Amino acid sequence: MQNPIDKIRLTRVRRSALFIAISSSFVLLLFILMGRTDKNKDLSKSKQTRIELVAFHPQQIEKPKVEASAGPLAPPADPVTDSQGPKQSRMEPPKLQQYLVPGDISVVSKLVGNKVCAECHPGEHALHAGSGHARTLKPAGKTAVAQKLNGTTVRDTESPHILWQYLVAGERLEAEQIKDGKRTCIPLDYAVGSGEHGMSFVGVQYSTSLQEYTGIEHRFSYYTRSDHMDITPGQGERDRGSKKQEFGDTGRTMNKTNLTKCLDCHSTITSAKKAGDFDPFTIIPNISCERCHGPAKDHVEAARRGDPLEKLAMPLGVESATPARQIHECGTCHRRIDLVSPSMIHQDNHELARFQPLGLQASACFNEGKSGLKCTTCHDPHGKVSNNRANYVNACVNCHQNPSQSKCKVEPKGDCIQCHMPKRTVSEVFEFTDHWIRSPKKSK
Ligand code: HEC
Ligand code: HEC
Ligand code: HEC
Ligand code: HEC
Ligand code: HEC
Ligand code: HEC
Ligand code: HEC
To answer: pTM of the entire structure?
Structure first.
């Protein structure tokens, strides 16, 4: 008689033996990947920071030696003097500098930037360059929307006695509030969102008393569909909820944590100096190749040396982008089930359509990853979302034509997407595709 623990061990051994046998030609690859996966697993437990760049977890960054004794971030040099008038904030506009590589932070120094990838992966590079991922964080003044706003005036619909006037000032957009004859200028540094659906504006300031950056999410955002400025989602009177103190008539104030969170999902790293921090001088805006695939310096060097293919494996590569991995990585920003309060997760909550990974996880089709269904079954992760309906339908049919699968009794040859993945209106203005694939009868 084997004791149960031995039995479990034996099953485990058998399982891994099988696993290794299957991937015998990839033994090396497997070890590399296992190492990486384990690392990710451990770190994903940490609630310290929400940045989950594959194989790049900023909480691991050691403090740069030079700064070790310097304490909190020193305020940036202040070239914008008062002589330029009270309209300017006291901070130099953050430079959205790409790929600043600070010397002694090992992980950050392994980031090489998208341009380097183009040399060997021109296809992925071109697709990515046109996607929302590559255009989701910009200096506010440098956007087409800011050019359009320049010189215009908008009235606050909830507080009609307040007017806003916009002015492009270099990399910034200045929003001047006109209230009871008084003018207050709010400099806006970042445009968040590509404008595919919309664009919000965030201003950052260095608080000398707190010795850290704080932010303000402007009261108004640009809505692409209606082509106008309106109250930012979440800031309307009825959305404010219990956190009223964060909201004022100029926008939502964000402490350092909330500012970092906000920019985190729209960038590659928010600071190359300190884990989970925000630093306008070393932020790497936009979701670069390396946010998904991890720092690529070693990969590029190996490729240039002509190393064998198995040495060129990357996180979220062809082998490693398993259903579970994709749900985890894409879901860090697009939201997984574990990032949404359980009380919100029910069939009739159409707001959930905004969270595609959550939808997929909840679908019978996903079957906890066992069916093989993943984001890349239907999407190229590099490009803009395609609207080729036939391709999506093919994905459904490919699986459901299998004799063991249940069949549609309603319209087995119809447009599956229209009935099983309908568009939902979210936050009253945006349209998202419901990724919770189910019988249309199961939700209102
Ligand atoms: C670091 C956060 C982050 C990660 C990781 C991430 N995304 Fe995104 N994704 C975004 C943001 C932010 C946008 C909106 C971009 C914009 O401003 O248009 C977006 C947009 C998209 C779009 C375009 C939506 C549209 O409106 O057309 C698709 C498709 C998409 N992501 C798929 C994926 C997939 C698949 C993965 C995983 C392989 C993934 N994303 C991983 C943050 C992320
Ligand atoms: C948990 C990750 C996450 C956080 C935090 C986050 N976003 Fe996003 N944001 C996304 C993703 C994913 C998308 C693309 C899908 C969508 O619109 O939901 C997106 C889309 C957007 C868009 C629409 C872009 C477009 O045109 O499609 C805007 C504007 C935006 N975010 C602004 C903000 C601002 C401002 C903050 C902070 C106050 C913020 N986001 C915080 C993940 C995030
Ligand atoms: C949003 C996350 C994301 C971003 C950003 C991203 N990728 Fe990928 N990439 C993936 C995923 C997921 C796969 C696996 C696709 C699959 O399942 O076949 C992949 C696969 C690849 C592959 C292997 C393709 C193949 O079929 O052999 C290459 C090469 C690649 N990516 C390069 C890049 C480059 C270069 C960039 C930047 C220009 C980039 N990726 C940006 C998620 C991403
Ligand atoms: C000097 C050439 C070269 C450069 C530069 C390069 N790669 Fe690659 N890459 C390769 C080769 C060769 C392969 C293996 C064959 C293939 O999949 O195309 C590969 C494969 C990949 C894969 C698939 C790995 C897998 O496990 O399936 C990804 C992802 C990838 N590269 C990402 C990147 C990213 C991101 C960059 C830029 C930061 C980059 N590569 C720069 C040559 C290069
Ligand atoms: C990778 C395989 C796969 C793909 C792709 C796939 N499904 Fe499924 N689907 C399944 C499995 C597995 C089940 C659960 C067992 C069953 O019902 O056959 C399922 C169940 C369903 C159900 C029943 C859901 C319930 O709650 O009972 C519907 C409806 C459905 N699929 C529709 C679709 C549609 C529409 C598409 C395309 C958008 C699609 N499926 C794509 C594998 C898949
Ligand atoms: C069974 C196919 C299928 C799978 C799997 C799938 N999607 Fe989609 N996705 C769609 C369809 C269909 C659309 C709508 C395309 C259009 O607008 O024509 C869409 C649209 C999107 C959009 C654009 C915004 C929206 O909701 O309309 C994002 C972002 C997105 N998907 C992300 C993901 C992510 C992340 C995953 C993996 C967790 C995923 N998708 C898996 C079919 C799929
Ligand atoms: C006109 C709308 C419509 C279209 C188009 C449609 N379906 Fe359905 N489908 C339904 C409805 C409604 C049900 C639920 C029937 C019920 O519960 O009796 C259903 C049920 C299903 C089921 C569950 C069957 C079961 O026994 O549990 C599957 C799987 C399915 N559809 C797949 C598909 C696929 C794949 C396509 C595309 C080839 C498709 N459907 C096209 C409306 C549609």
So the answer is: 0.86
